[in-house]
Amino acid sequence: MKQNVHADLLGALRDVVTGGDLPPASRVPEKQLCDRFGVSRTPLREALKALAAEGLVDLVPNRGAWTKPVTIDETRDLFSVIGALEELAGEQCCTRITEAETERLRALHVAMRARFETRDLAAYYALNRQIHEAIVASTRNEVLTRLYMQTNARIARIRFVAPMPPAIWTTAMQEHDGMMNAIERRDGTVLGNILRTHLRHKCAAIIADLESGTTEADATEAGRRRRRPPA
Amino acid sequence: MKQNVHADLLGALRDVVTGGDLPPASRVPEKQLCDRFGVSRTPLREALKALAAEGLVDLVPNRGAWTKPVTIDETRDLFSVIGALEELAGEQCCTRITEAETERLRALHVAMRARFETRDLAAYYALNRQIHEAIVASTRNEVLTRLYMQTNARIARIRFVAPMPPAIWTTAMQEHDGMMNAIERRDGTVLGNILRTHLRHKCAAIIADLESGTTEADATEAGRRRRRPPA
DNA sequence: GTCTCCCATATTGCATTCATTTTTGCTGGT
DNA sequence: ACCAGCAAAAATGAATGCAATATGGGAGAC
Prior knowledge:
2 copies of one chain form a homodimer.
Chain A: H1 6-18, H2 30-37, H3 41-53, E1 57-60, E2 64-67, H4 72-96, H5 99-117, H6 121-138, H7 142-159, H8 166-184, H9 188-212, H10 221-225
Antiparallel strand pairs in A: 1-2
Chain A binds a DNA duplex through residues 1-6, 29-31, 39-43, 45, 61-64, 227.
């Protein structure tokens, strides 16, 4: 029998929750996931406790694990926190980044700009994420990296379906130009500030989107059938 | 048989790790803790996975859980992160705090100053912690509060035995005066800045202390007998 | 002495089992 | 239709059992 599934299983489960496989505020079906991943309930439940510690699910006594609901308040809070974390990352990046890492960021930036020009949103998102992660990784601050990854995972669930209006997108691209420039000059203060406002803009765009589609069309028959979330 | 031990057990285990009950870089004895808390291995191991997600222990495949070693690098990283978190807390505190909470902070501040005058370090520490936690709580930002608590728990293990030289202590007390003043004036920017430098000073003091007692006197017979940590 | 190899023992990882709680679906009443 | 009330079924929480892995100690070689 296979040993040490924990790390793999945890990653796979995290993907299930962040990848939109389970909708927000829905029950996490233990048995189903056991079958899907070919493990017994013991390691699966261990992974769920870890996900709960990461803030991706809520554990309700005797009612199992539930994916976190998406609320405007939490979205705002998540972005304010990740803004602070990335600001710190920006500062430390400029004192610790190597030339090789700078070169890689340059390449990612150029590639992302190309996707912006051709309006390839999916590829743009992927590169965008790599850039932000590379900035954080360049700090060599493991504590920061861990919290950044955790918080970003929580945001990823929300952003999963967010659109990108042209005006916002153009602004974001300009901010990335500024970021790259600050990195070249090793100006941590400026980089930190740009990152923070960059995230404020992203947050505003997503909140606007959330507010537009508020009702979520859930008083329907499907919504009735689903078990009600905790509290 | 008792149900839903998870939350209680997790808290108790966290206290064991943060309270200095288990030294840094030591094995977490599963069976022993099971006996101590009167539970079977299943819930205990679940709690350990959660602690690992919180960054309090490392899980080593087939070698169990180990408390994190205390290193200077990690200490520096922890403080830089909690500095960023508290800076954010300071900003949001001033926009969201209620008058009742301000009143409570006033009382805590006065009480802490009294302990400073009489040089009652333990009581000072306790009040200090309450003040910082109250500032964070006043933001009503659950994401921030959660990460703050987690990070603070990791720092608590380190600070457990840190001394407090008179000069440092006086400076810290002055900074707290400035914080209280900024709160009264609802000046989030200033409060955030003070908090960040306040933590920078704390960090410097603790690192200095760590550097003084580097060797940890562990090549002795006791150190030889103990199983060696992972990696 | 000490170094290496080997085996008994302890510990870990996971599956299974069992008790408790929740959910569901049915019944009969209104 | 609608609702209580109740029993069956499903899900959860925790203990136990069992295979895989790591640890510790001694025997023997040098």
